[in-house]
Design brief:
Elements: H1 11-16, H2 21-26, H3 28-39, E1 53-57, H4 64-77, E2 81-84, E3 97-103, H5 109-120, E4 124-129, H6 132-141, E5 144-147, H7 158-171, H8 178-196, H9 206-214, E6 218-224, H10 227-241, E7 248-252, H11 259-262, H12 267-270, E8 273-280, H13 285-298, E9 304-310, H14 315-336, H15 345-366
Parallel strand pairs: 1-2, 1-3, 3-4, 4-5, 6-7, 6-8, 8-9
Helix pairs in contact: 3-7, 3-8, 4-7, 4-10, 8-14, 9-14, 10-14
Length: 372
């Protein structure tokens, strides 16, 4: 199957990516700098000494930041940390719960429902949003609000939705060293943009090469347990939304105890799968060995295997660099698939249908119809 798109042709991006998703990915380091400024000088911060648990409420690209913070700092926090995706959180929330309600648009219905629930329990709420109903709730209830710039797809706004959570936790004394690590990682991110950006040719650009390897296949991303498990989930979601490809993820070593056996069936399917291992070479030596052995055992039953060797000066540097690589690869794969990476038509249509059902329900109630 011949590739119809030349990723080295810079004119392709204006034609196939009119909303500029590639611009947002290449601007990732700049957004990280801006996220630092958003929280600088913020007043009315919660009191860390009063907090006994932390929760993040969100959906999709607005929730992944909670996973990343938990993966990096869960052990250091020494407190229960939960990421809630849905309408009704558990009843355990209290005045000693610090809640980050994250909705880029401010109108995510699940998050709005969840934040009303936790507010009724007296929880301390920090809203992170560009506006909408969530910002109005924050203003009415005098919650701390981090107002982020609008105009992006939520998944492209990750620095605005993720970094403020960690920066606030550092400001109230619950974690240490994050801001310094972030500041030091930004020049490395800028270097990676030069390596993986659109003007870097295919022969020297690992993100473009990876997209070519995945093209026509189903990516399955395995992250080492910990921060790379969260990164693997981000990659999976980016392949879904940007590339319009089915994609899946799991963790290692856990997959060695179940999923590895599943590659023995459905040869026609497994040949269409490209496995991607995200490997920090400073991981436990037995985990590094497991990647080698696992790859050897199943290489003949899948379409291909890639091992991404994650390096960096700090945990923050490694995590952000891994996320950036996945973002680039997913945009390049979108173009190879002939898709606009910005569009998420099925999500938009789903929301429209849900809204139609809401209006229908209201009309039936108003007309005296009966509900079963």
């Amino acid at each position: 199957m011949e590739v119809a798109v030349d990723l080295d042709d810079v004119g392709v991006y204006g034609k196939m990516d009119p909303s500029g998703m590639i611009d947002a990915v290449e601007g990732f380091p700049k957004l990280c700098r801006e996220a630092l400024d958003l929280v600088d000088g913020l007043e009315g911060l919660p009191h860390g000494g009063e907090i006994r648990e932390i929760a993040v409420l969100g959906m999709g690209g607005s929730a992944i930041g909670g996973d990343l913070v938990e993966a990096m700092f869960g052990d250091e926090l020494g407190l229960p940390f939960r990421v809630h995706r849905g309408y009704i959180p558990s009843s355990r929330y209290s005045s000693q719960t610090l809640v980050f309600a994250v909705s880029y648009s401010g109108n995510t219905e699940e998050t709005l429902s969840a934040v009303d629930h936790v507010a009724s329990k007296g929880s301390q709420v920090v809203a992170i949003t560009s506006g909408g109903a969530l910002l109005r709730k924050a203003e009415e209830n005098h919650w701390l609000a981090v107002v982020v710039p609008g105009g992006l797809q939520p998944r492209a706004a990750l620095p605005f939705l993720f970094l403020p959570i960690a920066i606030i936790l550092e400001k109230i004394g619950m974690i240490r060293g994050f801001t310094e690590q972030l500041q030091r990682s930004i020049p490395a991110l800028e270097k990676r943009v030069r390596q993986w950006g659109r003007v870097s040719p295919l022969g020297e650009n690992y993100a473009k090469k990876l997209a070519h390897r995945v093209w026509g296949k189903i990516p399955v991303v395995y992250g080492m347990d910990g921060y790379l498990a969260a990164a693997a989930y981000r990659w999976k979601c980016q392949f879904n939304e940007n590339s319009k490809s089915p994609a899946f993820c799991h963790t290692l070593p856990e997959m060695n105890h179940n999923e590895i056996v599943g590659w023995e069936q459905l040869d026609d399917f497994s040949r269409l799968v490209e496995l991607i291992f995200l490997l920090d070479e400073e991981s436990h030596p037995r985990v590094v060995k497991r990647v080698e052995v696992t790859s050897e055992l199943i290489k003949d039953t899948v379409g291909g295997i890639d091992v991404v060797h994650v390096r960096g000066e700090s945990l923050v540097d490694k995590l952000l660099g891994t996320i950036l690589l996945g973002d680039f690869a997913s945009v390049y794969l979108a173009l190879l698939n002939g898709k606009d990476p910005a569009l998420v038509e099925k999500i938009v249509r789903l929301k429209e249908l849900m809204a139609e059902d809401d209006r229908k329900d209201e009309a039936e109630e108003g007309d005296g119809g009966h509900l079963v």
